[in-house]
Amino acid sequence: MTQYKSDLLRLLDERGYIHQLTDAEGLDTLASEQVVPGYIGFDATAPSLHVGSLVQIMMLRRLQQAGHKPVVLMGGGTTRIGDPTGRDESRKMLTDETIAANIASIRTVFAKLLTFGDGPTDAIMVNNNDWLGKLGYIELLQEVGTHFTVNRMLTFDSVKLRLDREQPMTFLEFNYMILQGYDFRHLNKHNAVRLQMGGSDQWGNIVNGIELTRRMDQREVFGLTTPLLTTADGKKMGKTAAGAVWLNEDALPAWDFWQYWRNADDRDVGKFLRLFTDLPLDEIARLEALQGSEINAAKVVLANEVTRLVRGEEAAKAAEATAATTFAGGGLGADLPTLEVAESEIGIIDALVGLGFAASRGEAKRLVAGGGARVDGEAVSDEGYRIQLADKEIRVSSGKKKHGVLRPA
RNA sequence: GGACAGGUGGCCGAGUGGUUAAAGGCAGCAGACUGUAAAUCUGCCCGCGCAAGCGUACGCUAGUUCGAAUCUAGCCCUGUCCA
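Output (structure tokens, whole complex):
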């Protein structure tokens, strides 16, 4: 690997954030000489970002750690269009109120990981609706449209994918890359932003912004992308059967968030520690080197650290404690899902559904029939089984990992 | 506007009148093995019901038929080519 002279690129490089750079030398020089404001764009399609966006958020954190200025761009305007990148289907339209509410909710996570303020290296959050919303159509076509050729736009992966798969792409979405390019140019002009970062799928969009800025203002700006993050078994980060691993507490309980990291694939532990925690590299190297079942200790550290950063110290401690009593001790942890039971007894099927371990009664029955249901550690094979509460808490499990508590009301 | 092709379960994809709640694959859940890992093997995988069974489902709506995902008509949507 190249020997970088700037703290920024050294930091990003050694922790595994760099996939592609538009001009490594130029950026390296710039970052070693001055504070570089850099931005990453985020969608506002949901009230919470998920783990898939955490690499980007952490990269902004690294930017700040290296003495530069993170700019969080919320795509309030572009969300109204829908990024076609990597998608077969057009997005549904969101109302302005929904988008505004989403942005407010997403902001809470950034507040935990970045230091916001007015200082030179304090983070700021901007919303591209502020400038894109004011842009007139003719004005846009005239100013920006002349710098894009359709010939070139058609060669972009985001467009080609749709065409190859014979999926529709609306004109609306086709314009996304233009607006995103315009964002970079705008941020450069008004906030002195010099760098855009993003996932590797954003390379085309980033390059567009760089070229647009050069053509319109003759200013040089830089782009950097992260590797596409997949888990070792080839899945996208942040997706589980139960749905996305959301960063916001109200979208996913801290316990489940902690469990996501605790259950990481062995092969991913080192990579995740580097990307998602602030632990020093030599410490990570030590943890990563653990063999066999000892690697579980590293996974606990990973889960603790990430949960602490994203959800706070308390949440991390509570989750770790719950894991210790639940898995090691066979007891009950405070974080486990709980079902209040008013009666003195409850059927196993109702208990499983009530705890959210089965989506329907039929599913719960199949679980019991398959031998996956346990009450206080004992397998229950009779779907008519009644659990007697008798004033104490009962532990109900689905499989080996999902545990819940029945509590007399 | 015209011609042609197409719209099937979370996804991909078979299925051209009954034996189809719909092959197969992926994803998922559970069991075994383990380390709350991976890989592998096994079972499950629309809803309600103990069950027989009932309900719902193959773009939408009407129809033909004892019977339709399968046939007919109209409509909606998509792609390709033509205007």
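The mean pLDDT of chain A is 89.
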